[in-house]
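User: Structure with magnesium ion, tokens only please.
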Amino acid sequence: MCSPQSTFLLWMLGKSRDMPSFVDIQEVAVSYGEDTPHNRVLEGASLQMNQGEFVAIVGPSGCGKSTFMKLMSGLLRPNEGTVIVADREVDKPLGNVGMAFQNSIMLPWRTTLDNLLLPLEIVKQHRRQFRKKRKDYEAKAHQLLASVGLNDVAHKYPWELSGGMRQRASLCRALIHEPEVLMLDEPFGALDAFTREELWCVLRDLWEAQHFTVMLVTHDLTEAVFLADRVLVMSARPGKVVMNQAVPFARPRDLSIRYEKEFIDIVHVLRDQIKTVRAS
Ligand SMILES: Nc1ncnc2c1ncn2[C@@H]1O[C@H](COP(=O)(O)OP(=O)(O)OP(=O)(O)O)[C@@H](O)[C@H]1O
Ligand SMILES: [Mg+2]
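Assistant:
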């Protein structure tokens, strides 16, 4: 016989097992233009993410990684299948996502601070709060900038910043409205190796502090394994997820973990899988 305590525990465990995923993309197909077999970019592609999970997506160029992001953010509707985020089918652009890209655009006529505040001005659901509490949001922007090591740039223009500083600022901008999902599409691709490693640590620390749900698209397998809880490998076009590789290392991770055998082994497994899908 189970005690009431253990019954409760089993119920809780069962409950968590049955809990729907925070992001649930099921069997989607996407074509740009007419939906013909030739035009299919994604086909039979599925993906689940739990709330607070950090998932990286890797795969050959053109396999549909960025398209996956457009689906999740509601910028694109699938031709087949379903996209559910936070229990709701995504049928229009979501307001609760933050995005940063390789060449995130900062408006050159606005200061860094005003660039950070931009999502609050343009995303409908934040506009009214922003007008009422502008000072609070400005304080938050300063705080975010300080957390990524940018203390004195709020009143500088983007063209006065280095590439690495601009990417730090664009991470802050992606987070200013406290999004539930952060989508990063090769955010560090254009940076030199040292700056890139610095920014991995910046992102690691932001995630440790806030535990938002992250989808990171990258071509850098070391970056994927260093940062993510799971790395998904996609097939060549028409893309779908063909491998789900857990990354079991404790957090927070130090950069030196990259030289440990278990880390290198996972990178090799991923590299071999990508070689296979590229050849198929
Ligand atoms: N707006 C669009 N109109 C037509 N075709 C598109 C459009 N966007 C992407 N594609 C095509 O869809 C395919 C997948 O593109 P996507 O950008 O999702 O790939 P990716 O995996 O992100 O590639 P990369 O690693 O090079 O960034 C490519 O063949 C691309 O040319
Ligand atoms: Mg892309």
